[in-house]
Each structure stands twice: as structure tokens, then as C-alpha cells.
Amino acid sequence: MVLTRADKLRTKIQNLSIGKKQPKLSINDVQPALDYIQAYWHKLERYHPKDDENIIGLPNKFLVPSFEEGHEFDFNEMYYWDSYFMVQGILDDQHKEMVIGTLDNLTYLFERFNVIPNASRLYLSSRSQPPLLTSFIWDVYESYDLDQKWLDKHIDIARREYETVWLGTRKPNARQVYRGLSRYYDINYIHDIAETESGWDMTPRFNRKALDYLPIDLNCLLYKYELDFARYYQLKDDLNASAEWEQKAETRKQTINDLMWSNLRGLFFDYNYVKEKRGTVSSLAAYYTMWAGLASDEQAEKLVKALSRFEYDGGLATTDLQPNMYVIGTPITPTQWAYPNGWAPLHFIVIEGLERYGYHKDAERIAKKWLQTNLDWFNEHGVFLEKYNVVNPTKPPQKGLYPSQTGFGWTNSVFAYLAKKYL
Questions:
Q1: Residue 268, H or E segment
Q2: Each residue's pLDDT tens digit, 101-136
Q3: Tens digits of per-residue pLDDT, 377-416?
């Protein structure tokens, strides 16, 4: 195999940077950070019960991603996928009203708009965000021991979201485009805006042509929906309906394996259905297959070996090392969802996926690296960040299109979740 310059540089950096060691942390080390996080939640709470200019009114309190006094890039709206990750560290009795209210805000948005918008702003309703509604529903149902009537209502809304939004074949939801698989989309039919629906804005994964790609993460999320529906009907003792949903999931799984799995590289990739070939960017999106339970045991073993492409002292980089951290186009665009940056939600997905397949030591090692990176920055600067430079953790992360944010909701929540789980 001929190594490219990027391959050689990556190997050199990783040889200098990583091993299989993990930081030695105790709960006492992280307690000041956990106290900060607990005190910070009230800064992120919002309540907008009525429409106000372009802010959509919501019936319950919710959390915004970030708040920094005097920062002009502020948040007053609720985001779809941010909300899922922000509740992972607060699925407890203390935050029960906030957690259930946040989920009910999402279902309210769907019933009003026939889509869960990117966020609760009218100008963000032309697209959605990665679909995590069924996962959110099951987490809440199990955490708070809710009744069958509650579950019936919420699963029905999730099924309608799945069919209307993610299996739509024409405007305003032209997402299912090739062999039963779906893409990220925006009603304006602009590649860059469709890319924002992925949450990875911006990333080299789609080469500024997001509408041309079937994303591995999105189709794993839809596979998870199908299994979640099968689970629901099994709970209802409707075995025929359960079997139908399991078959839908199996069909999607087979197509994903056919189009997106590279046995040679031991990784799943996005698929360019216009050119009918796999993408070339290695990314942590591949590990949604383990989180969703789609990967076979043999694939999971290869995926674990492939972690070395992403793992550094500070945790997991979002993509493999790229020779250029900008996507070429007009204009050149910085890609914050890429090497050398690491993100809390992707660490959550990878760690949970590793645990699901029994790779506890790998999960624990990565979790503790991520905790240490977050903690070191907090101890030095007194804040948490939305993303981190995992290759050089003492340096700031790679900038993106938007100003860097601090105090960040999903970072705080995943930190609390992992600290509780591993410390």
C-alpha cells in the first residue's frame, strides 16, 4: 500500500501523541467542574410560550446551547439534536420537568409544522436536524417510568416524522432519493444549507455537495427508528407489526452494507449516489453503526481497530487527518467538524457504541481522555467549550463559520454523564 503525505503525517503525529494509556481521574478531580455545570443550567433555561417575531413559541421551558454575557452570537431558540445530547446528563428527578418538557416541545413543533425544525426560529424551519426523536422518547419513557398512553402518543408522532420528513420523496421533504436511503436536505435545495441539517456545518465529508450524498449517520439513525418501532409493537404484543419494522430495518442494513462498507479500509463511508461511489473522508460518523447496533461483530472489530486513525491524547478527532482543513469552493470554507477538533456528541456516540459491543476498556479509555481534555481547559480557563482541539488540547480548537462558544450545553451534559459512568 502506498502511503500518501497525509498518511505519513498522521502516523507521525499519532506515534508522538497516543498510546493505550488513559488518564487517572477520580470523582474528586472533577467535582469542581460538576459543581460549575450544575450551577450553569439555569443560564441556559428559556421560556417563550408565544411567537415573538421570528422565535416560535413553545409550551414548555427548554435549554439553549450556550450563553455568554455580552456575546453577540447568542441563543434564545431550542435546537433539535442539541436538546437530545443536553438531557443525557440530567435524566434525573431533579430535572424531570425540564427533560419531559423539552421532548414535548419537539413533538409540538412537529404537530405544528410537519417537521421538527433545525431550531425554534421561523427562518430555520426549511430544514431539520439529525433525527433522534425515538431515542429521546425511549430514554424519557424508561428514566421516568411513564405509562403506555404517553408512549403511544409519542411513538405515533415519531412514526409520522419518520414517514413525512425522512422518507419524503418530493418537496418540502425530498430526502429519500436512492435505493430506500435518505439524505440531508433543505427546501431551498442549496448544498451548504442542506449540510447544516447534518449538524456538521461545515465538514469535508460532503465536499460542498451535501445533496448528492447518502450520509452513514443519518441512515443509521433511521435504522434505529425502525428498530425502536419494532420494539414498541413487541411491547404491545403486535408481533406482525414488530416483524414488519424489523424487516424494514434489515433491508436498510443490507443496503447500507452494500453501498457504504469498505472491507479494505475497515470503515463505513458516506455514499455519493449521483456518482454512485463511496466518499473518501474517514469520519466518526461511521461509529453510528455501532451505536445503532447495525454493525456485525466482524465489522465492529474492524471499526475498533480503525479508532487509531482518530485517537489522540485529547480524545477523538472528528475526521481522519486531511491535507487541507478547508473545503475548496467559492469561497473556501473552514471546516470545524473535522480534524483536529473533537465534539461531545460524537464522543458520546462512539463510547456508547463501544460499550454496546463489549469494548469496555476502549470506551473507558476514550471517555477518560475526553474528560481530561474538558477538565484541563476548565481548570485553566474556567469554562467549557463547544469543541476541543484533541490533537493539541492546550491550544484552541479549529475555528468554523461561527464564533466559538463557551459554557456549552452538550459538552457540559456529556461531561457529567461520562463522569458519573466512569468515575
A1: strand 267-268
A2: 999 999 999 999 999 999 999 999 999 999 999 999
A3: 999 999 999 999 999 999 999 888 777 788 899 999 999 9
Q: Which helix (H) or strand (E) holds 326?
A: strand 326-327
CA distance linking residue 188 with residue 368, whole number of Å: 42
Pair 372, 310: CB distance under 8 Å: no
Which has the minimum average pLDDT: 66-75, 87-96, 316-325, 346-355?
66-75
**CA 199-200-205 angle, 5° bins:** 140
201: left (phi over 0), alpha (psi -120 to 50) or beta: beta
Radius of gyration of the chain (CA): 20
- More confident position, 73 or 404: 404
Among candidate residues 131, 14, 22, the one with its CA nearest the CA of residue 418: 22
Which pLDDT belongs to residue 12? 44
Q: Are 175 and 144 in contact (CB under 8 A)?
A: no
DSSP characters over 185-203:
--TT--HHHHHHHTT--S-
The β-bridge partners of 108 are none
Quickly list DSSP for 86-132. HTTT--SGGGHHHHHHHHHHHHHHHHHHSS--SBSBGGGTT------
- When the pLDDT of each residue in the chain is averaged and rounded to a whole number, the result is 93
Cis peptide before 202 (omega within 30 of 0): yes
> So what's the pLDDT on residue 11?
44
Query: Can you give the pLDDT at residue 371?
Result: 98
- List the one residue out of 176, 164, 44, 182 whose CA is nearest residue 110: 164
Strands 45-46 and 62-63 turn out to be: antiparallel
Residue 330 has pLDDT above 60, yes or no: no
Are 130 and 199 spatial neighbours (Cβ–Cβ below 8 Å)?
A: yes
Q: Are 356 and 304 in contact (CB under 8 A)?
A: no
My answer on whether omega of the bond before 172 falls inside 30° of 0, hence cis, is: yes
End-to-end CA distance of the chain: 42
Q: How far is CA 182 from CA 214, 283, 300, 381, in A?
A: 6, 19, 23, 42
SS3 218: helix
Q: What share of the chain is helix, strand, coil (3-state, %, to 5)?
A: 50, 10, 40
CB 193 within 8 A of CB 125: no
Q: Contact 212/274 with Cβ under 8 angstroms?
A: yes
